[in-house]
Structure formats: structure tokens, C-alpha cells
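Record pair follows.
FIRST:
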Amino acid sequence: MIQLKRVQTDDTDFATLIDLLDKDLWARYPDTQQFFHAFNIVKLDANAIVAYENGIPVGCGCYRETEDGHVVEVKRMFVKEEARGKGIAKKIVMELERWAHENGYSRAILETGTNQPEAIALYTKMGYKLIDRYAPYIDSEQSVCMGKELSL
């Protein structure tokens, strides 16, 4: 059984999953991850989700408000390799969207990378559309930016 928990970004399970995500990203983008690392630091004011399968933390994600007060950026999406293919990432994204909508946000944006085709496929299936790369990813050829209106 999959359970989702809304947590603060200093949650121990969230931090452990973020460490695994960072290792995954370094393996996928060894030449450019140093550039992206600075943009992946999660601030304490972000809203985070941890997914548990039978009580074990297996996935996470969060969102933070952008400079446009009606838009959030989905960040730090990750599901452990052994838990993939079970719809956990979709559940996390749906809960992040629901939470953002509850807090009055009308749009979500995100950045993923060309070496993450599974993420691009997931977001596309969930209604995210390609958008122009936004700062700080404007000049990054490996960045894929997407957006979606939040109308739950």
C-alpha cells in the first residue's frame, strides 16, 4: 500500500531520498551536474511529500513558490529504482498539484532533463506541456521545461 505524507523539507526521510536523487542525477549528468546542483537546494519554505510503501520511504517531491505569486515549481521528484513502475511518481505529482491548488496556486512548472525520458513521459501523460526554458535553465541544452494549469 502506498501512503503519501506532507512533510517539511527538513524531514529525515525526505533528506535521505534527496541524497539518493542527487546520486542518480550525478550518474545521469556527470559533466553538468555541478551547474545544476546549486538550483536543486531545497529551502525550508518548500512543501514536500514523501511516499511510503508498506512504511518504507520510496519516493518524494516538493514544490516552491516562484516569483510569480500564482505559480509553483515542482522540484526534487524521485522514486527509488526498486519502487518504480507502480504509479508512485504520478501519485506524488497529483498530491503536489492538489496541495498547491489548495494554497491558491493556478499553475505548476518544472524542469527535468533530456537524460530522464521516464520523467518527460510521466509529465506529458499528466498534461504538462513543453514551455520555453526559464531562468536559470535558459541556456541549458539538457533542460526540458514543462508547465500545466492547476484546475483540479
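SECOND:
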Amino acid sequence: MIKQLILAATIGLATLPALAVDIAVAPGEAYLRVTEGDKNILFVDVRDPVEIMFVGFADTVHVNVPFMLVDRSAWDEKRNVFRLYQNPDFIRQIQAELDRRGLGKDAEIITMCRSGSERGEPSAAFLRASGFPNARFVIDGFQGPAVKDGPQAGLRIRSGWQNSGLPWSGKMNPEKMYRTDRRP
């Protein structure tokens, strides 16, 4: 069943721009690559841990290292949300996770955010620009984009990790989560 889901998700690659295909990976493909024992991969959830707490977590990821963090002291009036800022230690924290696993900069780093577009793809592009040539991102991230029309407009119910039948939970794994009480 999982392999059929992966095939269906991979077909979605044909709809991506040519540049993105090189950097994109379907959710099912990421799942298989990690669970079937590819040891030269670091799978990173790049969401703010508070978002994970409310949306859900895929324990298949190796670690949570946020690409963007929420600044709860600054409000974005235009978007009506708290301001996000780039994690200033993102590259150092990714390198530390690679070192911890005995992996080099040439390892494949797969990032996953909520929808794939605002943090997933940008974090993979940032990693590539910072000397990690095999960084990629999960297409449609953990939940996928919001439905635009109809009675379910605004809900994230069509794609991404969570909606592809891949394992996830509402419970976080404290050993994998970004925690300021344990960061150097």
C-alpha cells in the first residue's frame, strides 16, 4: 500500500518547475529512503516546535531544527500573525546533527515544513547555497497547501505527509525536538 501511495505522489513531480524537480522529493519517497536504511540521509523537520505541537509530528524525521522561528514579541500587522525570523544558528545546528551521525556535507539533507513552500524549499535552497549540495525538501510538506475553494476552503486535507497515509502522531518525540533547554 505504501509503495502505491509513493507512486501516486511521485506523479506530482511532473507538475513542478524543472528547477524544483532537482531539489524536490515526494513524501513517500522520503519515507522509504529513511525507513529502508539509507544511512547517508538527514531528515529534518524545519517547523517551529510550537507548530509541531499543534499540527502533528512524523517520528520518521531524525531531528527538528527550525529554519524560521516565531518572534512572539513582534506582530506582523499586514499578515495578522507573529513575525517570523530566520534561525541564526540553522547552519551550525544542521552541521552538528550531521557530525553527530558521522555524515559529511555531501549527505542528503531532506527538509520538511508544513506546506513545502515557505520553509521547506527555501531551507533546502539555503542549505545548498551554504555548501550542502544534496539538500532537498518534501513536496507539500507535512500537511500540504490549504484548499482554496469549496466548503473545505482553508483546510489542509489533500496532500503532504499527513494526507498521504504516512505515519504521524499528535505526540512529539522530546528527543528529536528543538529545545532551547538542550541547545549549546
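COMMENT: The chain is about 30% helix and 20% strand.
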